Every structure is written in C-alpha cells, then in structure tokens.
Amino acid sequence: MVGRHPGYIPTPGQILADLFAGAGYEVIATSSALNRYLRLTDIVQTIARHRNRIDLLVIDVFGGRSFVGEDAASWLGRLLGKRVVMNLHNGTFPKFIARFPDWSRRVLSRADALVAPSPFLPRAVAPMGLRVGIVPNVIDLSNYQYRRRDGVRPRLFWMRSFYPYYNPAMAVRVLARLRASVPDATLVMAGQDKGVKGEVERLAASMGLNGAVRFPGFLDVEAKRREASAADIFLNTNNEDNMPVSVIEAGAMGLPVVATEVGGIRDLLTHEENALLVPDNDVEAMTEAVRRLLNEPSLAGRISENGRRLAERSSWEQVLPQWESVFEKAMAGSGGHARRLN
Predict the structure, then answer these.
(1) Assigned domain for 302 exists
(2) Which domain holds residue 252?
(3) Both 251 and 127 in a single domain?
(4) Do the domain assignments include residue 340?
(5) Is the pTM higher than 0.90?
(6) What is the rounded distance in angstroms from the CA atom of residue 114 to the CA atom of residue 96?
(7) Is 29 in contact with 35 (CB distance < 8 Å)?
(8) pLDDT, tens digit, for every residue of 275-323?
(9) Which of 42, 109, 104 is nearest to 78 (CA)?
(10) How many CB atoms lie within 10 A of CB 94?
(11) How many domains does the chain fold into?
(12) Are residues 168 and 260 in the same domain?
C-alpha cells in the first residue's frame, strides 16, 4: 500500500482494495509503511488483530525481498484458518521461482486460489503442479480519455520507474536514432527514480538530446492524462515484464504502443493488432517500428483502436465478476492447497 504516499506508484493491491470497498466489500488494507521491516510488522499485526473480522486474505505476491512478508502473511493466515488468495505479479518472479523452488512451492501451496494477470506466471508455476487462474490487472477507464491516433506525430512517451530492467536508456537511444531522419522528434520520460534516472539524463545529454527529452518525474492521474494527450506513441522498453499497467493505460488513451517482446508481453499484446512488438533491447527495430507508425496512418489508427479495446477488458465492470468467482471458489475450498480454477 505504499502508493498511499505522494510520488509512489499505487500497487495492484491498493487499487483493488479501493475498488472492492467501493463495490460494498468490507476491506482491511495493509500496509502503507515505507520501511519494509515496519511494513512486515504492520501486516502481521493487522492480520492478528483483525483475525475475527477476516473471511478471506488476499495477498499480492511479487517474489524477491517481499517474499518474506508474503510467506509470513500466508503462514499466519493459514494458521488462523483463513481462506487465502494469492495474486501473482512481477516479470522477474519466474527467476525467483527457479532460484528458490522449494520455498516458492511451500508458500504458494498455502493458497486456496492462485491468480495472475496473464498466462505468463501460470506457466512458471505449472511445474509445481499448481494451477493459476487469470484475472487481468484493473484500471479505472474513467480516468483515461481516449483519442484515436490515425496520423501520429513524432511525440514519444515512456512511463515507468527508472529501474535497470525497465531499460529506460533504450528509449533515449531510439530517439537519437529516430532524429537522424525525423529531427523534430521528442520524448517524455516519466516515472519515479529507482536509481538510474541520473544515468539516463547523462546519456541524453551526451547524445546531444538536451531539449528533445523531458523528465517530468512521477505523474499523478491528471498529469498522466496531460502528458498522454500531448504524445502520440508509447514506448515500452522493458527487459522483463508481466502485464504492465502502463501499457494498458496507454491503450486506454489511444496511444499506439511499441514494446519489447519479453515475458508476459507476448500474452498481452499481438503484433500489428494492438501494438508493434520488437526484440528485447533492439534499438534499430524499435526505431523502425516508430517510423512505420509515422508513415502508415491506417496501422497507427488500427493499433490505437484495438489498444482501447484491450484496455476495456481491464475495466472494473469486466474484472469484478472474475474476482467474485475467485472469492466464491476460494471460500468453498478445503485443505489449504491451491486448486484448479475452471
């Protein structure tokens, strides 16, 4: 729940907690503590303190360092006899499972139901003998005004945290290559700094792109709408990914997406239908894909329209019934083991 703080990205759990509360569910959400140790303590204490009010424990599972908390929360929930639903995230989670197979199996097997936003993570979990249902990540479509892009301008938009495996430097290199033939091309790179923003800014300066690249920082909903309205093409440069909400948001606003074909992107996007897909870290291929959108208005328009249709599948009206089905199956489960979702 760290997204409760200004300048932090809302987590999937936070978004769902608010939407469930709005749908009439009694929701206890934890924890918004920024320090991971305080957050772990708060999670455990909250579960224990409210144990008589809790029917169902929903845990976002990311792997990595947060898996300690996910382990503790699921163990305590199972100890207290609560039904447990685990919602799997993170494009790097398969690597974590490969590194810690026994630990991963032990924790995930506590769930009465496992879900993930795309088929990518279910494939990673399948060798454990566990089945995972698919429930898409959700967005509030009312926050995203759609504009179909038929004739696009060279106004590029990148939005993600400045973290190594999101590969932000690739966007800068794409812009530099594009400006060799499209000298008025520009790029907006928005997001929270996770350690590499300074490197990206220095790269842009070294490539003579001062004035062509802008770094507005973290964007709230209003700023996101404003920046997207001024842009025409969305770049997703990740080395690893699952079902990025930023790509869904771009589609919701009608921005044609050019994305690296990694991880769950292959399950989310279809080449030349709702995006143009390129190999991982292939600057030339991404630049050429941008040129295609600039030169082929019908292609840009088709991808823009289909991107909005893709986003509509992540609307709360579409996703809530899927979650209610998961809840029903989890509450009917027994034995504390993950089971097939039909």
Answers:
(1) yes
(2) 141-312
(3) no
(4) no
(5) no
(6) 17
(7) no
(8) 999 999 999 999 999 999 999 999 999 999 999 999 999 999 999 999 9
(9) 109
(10) 20
(11) 2
(12) yes
